[in-house]
Amino acid sequence: MIRYAASTLAIMYWICGQPAYCGFEQQVAAPLSFALFCVRYPEDCQQHGDLRITNFRSRSQRWRQLNQINSMVNFSIMPKALAASRNDYDWQIFPSEGNCADYAVTKRHLLLRAGWPSSSLLLAEVGIRATGENHLVLLVREGRAILVLDNLSTAILNVNEASDQYAFLRIQSRHDPQLWTRRLTVS
Predict the structure, then answer these.
(1) Across the strands, what pairs with 97?
(2) Which of 46, 61, 143, 178 is the most exposed place for a label (fewest CB within 10 A)?
(3) What is the pLDDT of residue 157?
(4) Is 7 helix (H, G, I), strand (E, B) or coil?
(5) Rounded to an integer, what is the distance from CA 41 to the centroid of its chain?
(6) Are 82 and 88 in contact (CB under 8 A)?
(7) What is the overall mean pLDDT for the chain?
């Protein structure tokens, strides 16, 4: 009963809470799946500051941490096609098997717990250019670079390299994790 009520509230928020498109900032409604995810995992949908001790975290240490988390999550979740899995609306952290969204939110969850700021960890809904399928990846802002962590690749790509494979449809705002935009802002 409580889960049904929470799901109903999330759907109402998704439908009524934000305009589908509003002018200058190019804000768009978050995916319904994200609203449901936030009901289940509210801590992962809040603003988090940078809790890393920057004096002791060299660029190579941060890069190593990104690679470890990307690899660990890619190998610990068994891939399951959407048609064979539970519905796509049920994003989960650390399921035994899952789809692209489960990989992306698990990576983001681990990086948030490691002290990365939410403004550096942006979920992005993309279209795969070769197949036209929708897909979810995690974008990580590291200095001036924007990196793509994806369950379809063991390598972490620069966003410019990934643009050949993906069309970016909507991206979590770096200013407010609850908001999504149509554009990836580099600044």
Answers:
(1) 78
(2) 143
(3) 94
(4) helix
(5) 13
(6) yes
(7) 83
Cβ neighbour number for residue 87 with a 10 Å cutoff: 8
Would you say 18 and 29 are in contact if contact means Cβ atoms under 8 Å apart? yes
The amino acid that residue 107 corresponds to is: K
> How far is the C-alpha of 113 from the C-alpha of 135, rounded, in Å?
24
In SS3 terms, 149-174 reads as ECCCCCCCEEHHHHCCCEEEEEEECC
What does the pLDDT average to over 145-160? 94
DSSP string, 9-76: HHHHHHHHSS-SEEGGGTEEPPPHHHHHHHHH-GGGGS-----S-GGG--HHHHHHHHHHHHHHHHHH
Q: How far is CA 79 from CA 105, 122, 151, 175, in A?
A: 14, 22, 9, 31
Q: Which two tokens stand for residue 114?
A: 């490691």
> Mind listing the pLDDT tens digit for each residue in 32-67?
999 999 999 999 999 988 877 655 567 888 899 999
Q: Among 56-70, 157-171, 173-187, which is the least confidently predicted range?
A: 173-187
Dist CA 97 CA 81 (whole Å): 10
Q: What is the pTM of this model?
A: 0.82
